Amino acid sequence: MTPSERDAWAEFRGSGLLWWVNRGLHLFGWCIVIVIERDSELDITSGRIVGAYPARRPFRGFDCEAEVKGFEALTHHLEREMPRLTAEVDDAARTLPCPCPATSRPT
Fold it and tell me: In the chain, how long is the greatest CA-to-CA distance?
């Protein structure tokens, strides 16, 4: 895994997006597993992401604490990213061709 891939996975995880995606995948008995290399077995809050893979799992959903932390992280991520996301959507609406002739776009 390259350093940029590790950074992307760390951002994906830290933003709450990994939790959000896994919530959906749990419905089908799947999840995305992140492999973390730790300096110490006692330190479960940090480490370097060294891999990621899909896996079948028998459990469904998360406990209440994980749900609260997940919604909190994702909400804060959206709050930080909203200006950039809005600009990207506005730019795409102005520049990308629309495949549906019946769709009208504001000018």
Answer: 59
Three-state DSSP class for 32?
A: strand
- Domain boundaries along the sequence of the chain: 3-92
Q: How far apart are CA 39 and CA 47, in angstroms?
A: 7
Instruction: Return the structure tokens found at 46.
Output: 């940090």
> For residues 5-25, b (16+ Cβ closer than 10 Å) or e, as one string?
eeeebbebbebbbbbbebbee
Asked whether the beta carbons of 60 and 27 are under 8 A apart, the reply is: yes
Instruction: Please state the pTM of the whole predicted model.
Output: 0.76
Q: Return d(Cα 34, Cα 13) in angstroms, integer.
A: 9
Residue 86 CA, chain-centre distance (Å), reads 18
Q: How far is CA 20 from CA 23, 55, 67, in A?
A: 5, 16, 9
Amino acid at 27: L
pLDDT in tens, 66-83: 999 999 999 999 999 999
